[in-house]
Design goal:
Radius of gyration: 22 Å
Largest sheet: 5 strands, parallel
Helix content: 40-55%
Order of helices and strands: EEEHEHHEHEEHEEEHEHEEEHHEHHHH
Number of helices: 13
């Protein structure tokens, strides 16, 4: 599947990490602490769960993909490139339900929303994944993984559907650390079927769904049908990044069941506990007092803001102004503040001279390498432009640093 064009990222001087104090640390969901990334590797591997394309792109999506854009930029600046893979769940119940409700072919609906998502990502200057993979094109990899799970005794048949036995997974529960009652509650709330009779365990999840009337289906070694959600991401990540990855990412609502069960399936395929070294999540974004989500219908779309004439860089700044570990609620004031900030930054970058930029770049790096503290990096820029200076090179250097580290031009 085609991705979008990445913006060119300026390279800044003295970008190497030479001591532990200069390491890039990220908030790891599995340990609830800061974990240093191994920047001595040739590259880091990152997998971020993509959209189900029946509505794209609301601000919750944008906040998530901006977070991992920032992560890539910080690692690039530290001298370690990131191999980034993102999926598209281009066949799943929500997409099929929307297509049935509107009378549109599900493939046409998916193609249109994926195209709009690409436009939104490009407008926000988000670095494109190296591999952008749809569930449909990944079916051969999914089927291969299911066969292996079945051969290992970790999958079973239920009325023609194939389920993953969560009890077979080494380390199951080590991503979320939720107790069983919480797992059952979230499974029911987030696309699982813990109430289905005949399952060996209510937490077991669907690997392959047999063909249903009027649903799309494919002939495969595990029968005619379509893939489940969690195995899709496990198979794509392992196919394009290897049996173990450095970073698994997504929205906070993916911690369980999606990331827990994807990791469980990958660990079962690998034969030992663990899949990603760290799990990084974007906290949920609310609007009108509730989590911003498609099911609630309280969405603010990037494309609609753009169509109304809002500068995408103001949208980017509005979202980056909130720390990714803290949930928050979108208001008109967020956008107004970002627009004001953008005007002041651009004015400062066009000056003939300014304060030396080196302390600014150091402050931005320190903030970003310390748990991706993006709001602190933004505040460092505000502080730099708040007073005059006579360094003729400073405005251009500051502009390049803000482009490289924050993606704002």
């Amino acid at each position: 599947m085609r991705s979008w064009d990445s913006p060119v990222v300026p390279r800044l001087a003295a970008h190497g990490v030479e001591s532990l104090d200069e390491a890039v640390r990220v908030h790891d969901t599995a340990t609830s602490g800061l974990v240093a990334l191994d920047l001595h590797k040739a590259q880091l591997t990152l997998y971020v769960c993509g959209i189900t394309p029946y509505d794209a792109t609301h601000l919750g999506h944008a906040a998530t993909y901006l977070l991992f854009d920032e992560l890539q930029r910080v690692c690039l600046d530290a001298g370690t490139p990131v191999r980034y893979v993102q999926n598209v769940t281009d066949v799943d119940d929500p997409l099929l339900e929307r297509a049935a409700a509107t009378g549109e072919d599900w493939r046409s609906l998916a193609e249109r929303e994926i195209a709009l998502f690409r436009e939104d990502m490009a407008s926000l200057r988000i670095l494109a994944p190296a591999e952008y993979v749809g569930a449909v094109e990944a079916i051969p990899d999914v089927v291969e993984a299911i066969v292996r799970l079945r051969d290992a005794g970790a999958a079973y048949d239920l009325d023609g559907d194939t389920y993953f036995a969560a009890s077979a997974a080494p380390g199951f529960g080590e991503v979320s650390h939720y107790d069983r009652d919480e797992m059952l509650r979230l499974s029911a709330e987030r696309g699982g079927d813990p109430e289905r009779s005949g399952k060996k365990d209510p937490l077991d999840c669907l690997l392959w769904q047999r063909e249903r009337p009027e649903d799309p289906a494919w002939d495969t070694a595990v029968g005619r049908g379509r893939p489940g959600w969690h195995i899709e991401c496990a198979a794509i990540a392992m196919r394009h990044l290897g049996s173990r990855i450095d970073i698994q990412g997504g929205g906070e609502d993916l911690v369980f069941p999606h990331h827990e069960l994807s990791a469980a399936q990958a660990a079962t395929l690998n034969g030992e506990a663990g899949f990603a070294t760290v799990y990084v999540h974007q906290a949920l974004l609310a609007y009108d007092g509730e989590k911003m989500s498609k099911s609630r219908g309280n969405l603010v779309f990037v494309s609609k803001l753009r169509a109304a004439g809002v500068d995408p860089m103001a949208i980017r700044l509005a979202l980056l102004a909130h720390h990714h570990t803290q949930p928050w609620e979108w208001t008109a004031q967020d956008l107004e503040a970002a627009q004001t900030r953008l005007v002041s930054w651009r004015a400062a970058f066009s000056r003939l001279a300014g304060r030396p930029a080196e302390p600014l770049i150091e402050a931005m790096r320190r903030a970003l390498r310390n748990g991706l503290d993006i709001p602190a990096a933004l505040q460092a820029v505000d502080a730099w432009l708040s007073s005059e200076g006579n360094d003729a090179k400073a405005p251009a250097q500051a502009k390049a640093a803000v482009d490289a580290l924050l993606g704002v031009v």
